[in-house]
Specification:
The complex is a heterodimer of chains A (about 325) and B (about 325).
Chain A: E1 5-17, E2 24-37, E3 42-46, H1 53-60, E4 68-73, E5 76-77, H2 84-90, E6 93-96, H3 100-103, H4 110-120, H5 127-137, H6 142-145, H7 154-166, E7 172-176, H8 184-201, E8 204-209, H9 212-218, E9 221-226, E10 229-235, H10 236-241, H11 246-254, H12 293-297, E11 303-306, E12 309-311
Parallel strand pairs in A: 3-8, 3-9, 6-7, 7-8
Antiparallel strand pairs in A: 1-2, 1-4, 4-5, 9-10, 10-12, 11-12
Chain B: E1 6-15, E2 18-28, E3 33-37, H1 44-51, E4 59-67, E5 70-71, H2 77-83, E6 88-91, H3 95-98, H4 105-117, H5 121-134, H6 140-143, H7 153-166, E7 171-175, H8 183-200, E8 203-208, H9 211-217, E9 220-225, E10 228-234, H10 235-240, H11 245-253, E11 301-304, E12 307-309, H12 330-334
Parallel strand pairs in B: 3-8, 3-9, 6-7, 7-8
Antiparallel strand pairs in B: 1-2, 1-4, 4-5, 9-10, 10-12, 11-12
The chains are: A alpha/beta (about 325), B alpha/beta (about 325).
Chain lengths: ~325, ~325
């Protein structure tokens, strides 16, 4: 089967300055990542701030071109952003971001905003009926469609954004922290909605979040990012039952839970990584509780440690696989 | 029972006639860690802002708040200022906006030490460094001359904690102290708060929307909804066997790392303070609501040693299967 979306060794740098007069220098936000998303599959991307997960999401949508590597959608190279081919393709790829209020126009009733993509892409037919159907599919009423964004709650606004993203019947949906701004009870509503819509429509989905618990809930596969690289990738069940990479193990153990704790908490020392000051060798070694001399000088490449399970760590080999937690 | 350190009785807060806190009773005992959980708009932060008299003038505050038995709501402003930052310290969610961007860390900590501890000169310098060491700041001495923008969010939160500890408080109020931080840094800060509390015998009020954070860091928990406490009790038993349908709902809505069982969302949204439903405020969203729930707002009463519950149907057995079907009629669910 051809993958819906494929990223091969993509890298993206930005230029920053230390201060007003400082030397401009490139910061590698994404540093050589290969990932695949199949139709009907949700790939979760986990990472802390500065890990490059949002940049990766933007490249997956073709909003930014990688400096190195390739992105293919349906086996065809991603066209340049803004080009005619890219605009046509955008029908098939949609996105949902964290802040629905920022993504909506405050002056327009939400139903008009939901059908806007149909207008933009010149999709004919009864646009209003399509809009009402989209509203219903996310659990909103026609009356709510007549309201302006500020008359809706945060969860309802995010439903509007989802309805708008799905009205062109896309095949790929990229969600960047879509429920992070929502309260727990509302977050559960939106997570369930995304799971249902994804299953009904056979969407390929990329779900980017810092919240492991939500990613666990929604993803088939999960990639863990640290400083622009994927340090571990596996089926969600495997990754959370038996995390292998020392960073994943710390992340999993740090997730707060009201239930009994099954693993000893690993508290990482040190600061979150700064992409502008990438350590030599393995980027995680200054915070890694098990780092060796080799980790300080040589960056580990992702390696297959079990079927469908890769990790980038010198200490991990198929034989050294850590038992389930 | 010992006198509580801080006691809040019958607290009501309203903004322009819209109630934000509706009759809260809460006590914090010396050295204990109390968690206050609730979603946005539940009144959990406003309760403590009102107790410490940090709300703007347009807020109407009624009730009694006492520290060691004496009322602090009627204290002269100057005496209240000695309590805030002195006996009661506060840290907020966003450290970078709570710190002054144009003053060095040394200046900001020194201010507290001069004001609340009457220190000066070399005494201040030594104590400021000791405090930064205490909160686990790497290179404490060098960091004293830094400015907030030169540090990460986690380091700024450490500075905030150091400033709150400078007044040697008996109680630290932490309002969503880790919400803006990354997961691994969140774990560091929570661990630090626990360690300091143990060493200094200080009481802690942890305000959070995250049940997991509260469950792991508090002895006792109060769950708030629409300006009221709906359930309180020891953290372990409350999370194990919640008695209030809202508390049950919050726990079921929370995803865990252990399974991918479908989340049980609470239907509907939080009520508008200007348009509160009749009877129990949670009634319209409650899968267990019955006719009696429309009559009155249920009072918070003791249902077991150390446990209090505000539910007209307080004999409900919520221990059954995790899934409640919100759309079915209440009678079906209860039977």
């Amino acid at each position: 089967m051809t993958p819906l979306l494929q990223l091969r060794d993509v890298a993206r740098s930005y230029v920053t300055r230390n201060n007003l007069f400082g030397q401009a220098r490139p910061v590698r936000a994404v540093d050589g990542i290969s990932l695949t998303v199949n139709a009907g599959e949700t790939l979760g991307i986990v990472g802390e701030s500065g890990s490059g997960k949002s940049t990766l999401g933007r490249m997956a949508l073709g909003l930014e071109l990688p400096d190195e590597g390739t992105v293919t959608f349906d086996d065809a190279p991603m066209p340049a952003p803004g080009s005619a081919a890219w605009r046509t393709l955008r029908r098939q790829m949609q996105m949902v971001f964290q802040d629905p209020l920022g993504a909506l126009d405050r002056r327009l009733p939400v139903l008009e905003q939901i059908i806007e993509p149909l207008v933009i892409h010149g999709i004919d037919g009864d646009q209003r009926s399509a809009g009402l159907a989209a509203l219903a599919s996310v659990g909103l009423s026609a009356a709510q469609g007549a309201r302006h964004p500020h008359e809706l709650s945060g969860g309802q606004r995010q439903r509007v954004v989802i309805a708008r993203a799905l009205i062109t019947s896309p095949r790929l949906l990229v969600c960047d922290e879509p429920v992070s701004a929502l309260d727990v009870s509302i977050q559960a509503q939106v997570v369930n909605l995304l799971i249902d819509l994804q299953a009904e429509r056979g969407l390929g989905m990329v779900f980017i979040s810092h919240d492991l618990r939500v990613v666990r809930q929604i993803s088939n596969r999960v990639a863990v990012m640290y400083l622009g690289r994927v340090v571990e990738e596996a089926a969600a069940d495997d990754l959370f039952r038996a995390p292998q990479h020392p960073y994943t193990r710390a992340l999993v153990s740090a997730a707060p839970s009201p239930g009994p704790r099954r693993v000893e908490r690993v508290i990482l020392t040190g600061e979150p990584p700064n992409p502008a000051a990438r350590p030599e060798g393995c980027a995680f070694h200054p915070r890694c509780p098990v780092a060796t001399a080799r980790c300080r000088t040589e960056a580990p490449a992702p390696a297959r440690i079990a079927p469908g399970h890769t990790a980038a760590c010198h200490l991990l080999t198929p034989a050294a696989k850590v038992a389930a937690r | 029972m010992k006198t509580p350190l801080v006691k809040i009785e019958g607290l009501n807060v309203a903004f322009d006639g819209a109630p934000a806190v509706r009759g809260v009773d809460l006590a914090v005992h010396p050295g204990e860690a109390l968690g206050l959980v609730g979603e946005s708009g539940s009144g959990k932060s406003v309760t403590w802002l009102a107790a410490l008299r940090l709300l703007p003038g347009k807020a109407s505050v009624q009730g009694r708040v006492s520290l060691d038995g004496s009322d602090i709501l009627s204290l002269p402003v100057r005496e209240m200022e000695r309590i805030r930052g002195g006996r009661i310290g506060i840290i907020f969610q966003d450290p970078s906006s709570a710190l002054n961007p144009v003053l060095s860390i040394r200046r900001q900590i020194s201010e507290v030490l001069a004001l609340h501890r009457g220190m000066s000169g070399s005494e201040i310098r030594a104590e400021a460094k000791r405090l930064l060491d205490l909160v686990g700041m790497p290179d404490a001495k060098g960091r004293l001359d830094s400015y907030p923008h030169e540090m990460s969010g986690g380091q700024n939160q450490r500075v905030m904690i150091a400033m709150a500890l400078a007044g040697q408080p008996d109680l630290l109020i932490a309002d969503e102290p880790t919400t803006a931080l990354d997961v691994t840094i969140q774990a560091q800060i929570l661990d630090l708060l626990q360690q300091i509390r143990r060493e200094m015998g200080m009481a802690l009020v942890l305000i959070s929307h995250d049940l997991g954070v509260v469950a792991e860091n508090c002895d006792r928990v109060a769950v708030m909804y629409a300006g009221r406490i709906v359930e309180s009790g020891p953290a372990a038993t409350l999370f194990d066997t919640p008695r209030h349908p809202y508390a049950r709902g919050l726990i079921d809505a929370l995803p865990t790392l252990d399974d991918t069982q479908r989340l049980v969302a609470i239907p509907g949204v939080v009520p508008d303070p200007r348009d509160m439903p009749r009877g129990c405020a949670f009634g319209p969203r409650c899968a267990y609501a019955g006719p009696e729930c429309l009559l009155d707002s249920p009072p918070l009463r003791a249902v077991a040693p150390g446990r209090r519950l505000a539910c007209a149907r307080h004999n409900l057995d919520l221990a059954g299967p995790k899934s409640t079907t919100p759309n079915s009629t209440p009678a079906e669910v209860v039977s």
